[in-house]
Arginine transporter ATP-binding subunit
Amino acid sequence: MIELNNVSKWYGTFQVLDSCSTRVDKGDVVVICGPSGSGKSTLIKTVNGLEPFQQGDITVDGIAVGDPRTKLSALRARIGMVFQNFELFPHLTVRQNLTLGQVKVLKRSDEEATEKGLKYLDRVGLLAQQDKFPNQLSGGQQQRVAIARALAMDPIAMLFDEPTSALDPEMINEVLDVMVGLAQDGMTMMVVTHEMGFARKVADRIVFMDHGKIVEDSPKEEFFVAPRSERAREFLARII
Ligand code: ADP
Ligand code: MG
């Protein structure tokens, strides 16, 4: 579904990604972890064309992301992305947040978009909040709305960039529970997170990054029991 082949990227002279290769098969969950500044956010953003890259290639469902002829807006419409800071539209209600992209990008009717949006809002347990504005919700609720909004676009894959790291501890699980449910339903997911409980539960593979390189790309059993690199061992010892 998603394949990265020797992807390199520079900011000026600073190399932020160094020959990164990995793949995510349909229905798989790949967790990306590693120290701050190692390039995790940059890597995940290259997948839906939010960050350009200079070398290598990326294909998503057969579409070449780096090809100048590829319509990135069409690609992005098919890949859901959830960020650390929710990024809901503050001036729109929850229901309007859920329908806007469907109507504008997918050209669905208001009726169809509302029906679909509310279905996913119900799924994340927030149907009763549909008329509220984002600032009237807790951080955990806002993130669940952001996930519902992404799902309402019928994505072929979901990308998450530290979706729980801005949340108070008591709200982390309500968001992780939604993500575990998605994983168990067979969604293809790339998730940057340090929540190793989540990784243990649903990840198929763990990618460990350091200084722009993919240092380790292993089945989770292997990664947790016997990480191959010293850097991954140190990292795990610090966060678990
Ligand atoms: P992570 O998500 O693993 O913390 P990032 O992908 O955000 O790492 O950043 C990787 C490196 O690239 C960091 O050293 C960061 O300072 C640098 N970086 C990120 N964005 C930019 C940018 N727009 N311009 C220059 N350097 C950047
Ligand atoms: Mg990051």
In short: The first helix runs from residue 40 to 47. The pocket of magnesium ion (ligand 2) is lined by residues 40-41, 162 (CB under 6 Å). DSSP finds nine helices and ten strands in the chain. The two ends are 31 Å apart (CA to CA).
